[in-house]
Write a structure and sequence with these properties.
Rossmann fold; Ribosomal Protein S5, domain 2; 3 domains; nine-stranded mixed beta sheet; seven-stranded mixed beta sheet; 12 helices
Length: 474
């Protein structure tokens, strides 16, 4: 009988401890240590057999040829993955329930007609998957190479992988999978940790690089393990369930974000060992699945803002993609003694800071007024360059004067009221020009890196918030 031991792991950062601790010494959070029991794997488990096959190899003898990535037939997904799915990688796709994780994965693998795919479902029945596949691809014959199995046992999943020899394995979801090596319920921290670790060792052990001349014919042939995509849920705090424990184990972490009441979804890369984490993909949720959005700027702006106050167009960059977003603000007299502050898609604390700057540096008295801010389209933007757009929308609503529809803005606002320079100013200007804007307000410090004669759009530099206010309403 395998001997068990008890360990405690911080749910926030993955710090391990032999005993329970009230405050995590690594991340400083309280009451985040959870107990789990770990059993020593037996000799019959797939994990143990893979570990025995690995051996030390001199670095100079390892073949390091660049393997072609798997084309996912999805431009947005390929971009976020860094050019495609790396063979033998372990990818975690996380998001809120109902956001579209299973839909994104299923519609993607339905296009991989040249690959063998094994879909392991622990949440839905095979009939439910068939109904969803018919809805996503009604006119396309379903793949004969797509195999579906409804199982939650890790040991059985390894048997299915060995029998089918697929190129890609989908596990939906990792919270439903359990192993006999751990005596706890599926979805617990110990089960998630051990199952993910076993899948990682299976993938990396089978794809271990071999030295030159290792086989009978001069070179040994490596075992080929499939790429594995794990679908994971997130907690009520908005982090991946299982949480940093899973993020440490996998090669790539993809976060699927969005509001169920809006059409748009954003796919971000939070960790990628094979590419950049600055990429993101944008999708539109439709009746027949998720459609990649090639030009999000045209969809994130309304066409009827002429004459309406409280609307400003900000040039933002998410990842490496520039796009223009519509910032909407409403300023009204507080109905009660305490003024309300509300922000959708924007950091609430940063909104309070910008309001303090307006009151202290520009002289607008907003302490007794309600301020409501909304980023159109349900997106959440973290780019500080939209500060100028937020302030412009607030000022426009406060004085009840509309901003010219042909004006875009970008710039970070400092505590002293200065407009600080932003990165990739050329991309922001080019995006505004492409969409037909006549003028763009930029930080004055960025002007030295831009030649205004290279653009057809009028470029207006601003050093302080007062300059932007005079340029918009003067």
């Amino acid at each position: 009988m395998a001997k068990e031991k008890t360990m405690y792991v911080c749910e926030n950062c993955g710090q391990e401890s032999a005993k329970w601790i009230g405050k995590c010494p690594s991340c400083g959070q309280w009451n985040t240590f959870k107990e789990f029991r770990v059993g020593k794997p037996s000799a019959q488990t797939p994990l143990a057999s893979v570990q025995k096959a690995c051996r030390a190899i001199p670095l100079s003898d390892i073949r390091a040829e660049e393997e072609p990535r798997m084309d996912m037939r999805d431009e947005e997904l390929n971009r976020v993955l860094g050019g495609g799915l790396v063979p033998g990688s372990l990818v975690l796709l996380g998001g809120e329930p109902g956001i579209g994780k299973s839909t994104l994965v299923l519609q993607t693998i339905l296009r991989l007609t040249d690959k063998k795919v094994l879909y392991v479902s622990g949440e839905e029945s095979a009939r439910q998957l068939k109904l969803r596949a018919d809805r996503l691809a009604p006119s396309t014959p379903l793949m004969a190479e797509l195999k579906v199995v409804c199982d939650t046992s890790l040991e059985n999943i390894f048997e299915h992988i060995e029998a089918e020899q697929p190129d890609l394995v989908i596990i939906d979801s990792i919270q439903t999978i359990s192993t006999e090596a751990v005596e706890s319920s599926p979805g617990s921290l110990s089960q998630i940790r051990e199952c993910a670790a076993a899948l990682l060792n299976f993938v990396k052990g089978a794809n271990a690089p071999l030295p030159h001349g290792g086989g009978a014919g001069g070179e040994a042939e490596a075992l080929v393990a499939p790429s594995i995509i794990l679908i994971g849920h997130i907690t009520k705090e908005g982090t991946l369930a299982g949480p940093k424990v899973l993020e440490h184990i996998v090669d790539t972490v993809l976060q699927f974000e969005g509001d169920q009441h809006y059409l748009y979804r954003i796919l971000r890369s939070q960790k990628n060992r094979f590419g950049s984490t600055s990429e993101l993909g944008i999708y539109e949720m439709r009746q027949d699945g998720l459609r990649p959005v090639a030009n999000p700027s045209e969809l994130l702006m309304t066409d009827n803002q002429d004459g309406l106050s409280g609307i400003a167009i900000a040039a933002a960059i998410e990842g490496v993609r520039p796009f223009l977003i519509e910032t909407q603000a409403l300023v009204s007299t507080a109905a009660y003694g305490t003024a309300q502050r509300s922000a959708n898609g924007f950091d609430y604390r940063r909104l309070n800071m910008l309001l303090a700057v307006l009151e202290k540096r520009v002289g607008f008295k907003l302490a007794q007024k309600d301020v409501f801010l909304n980023i159109a389209g349900g997106l959440r933007v973290t780019d500080p360059a939209i500060d100028l757009g937020v302030i412009a929308a607030i000022l426009s609503s406060n004085v009840d004067t509309a901003i010219d529809a042909g004006v875009a803005l970008c710039g970070e606002v400092g505590l002293s009221g200065e407009i600080r320079p932003v990165s990739r100013i050329e991309q922001r200007i080019a995006e505004a020009q492409k969409l037909g804007f006549q003028r763009i307000l930029i930080p004055a410090a960025n002007l030295k890196a831009v030649n205004p004669h290279d653009y057809k759009i009028e470029i207006t530099p601003c050093r302080r918030v007062e300059d932007a206010f005079r340029a918009l309403f003067g």
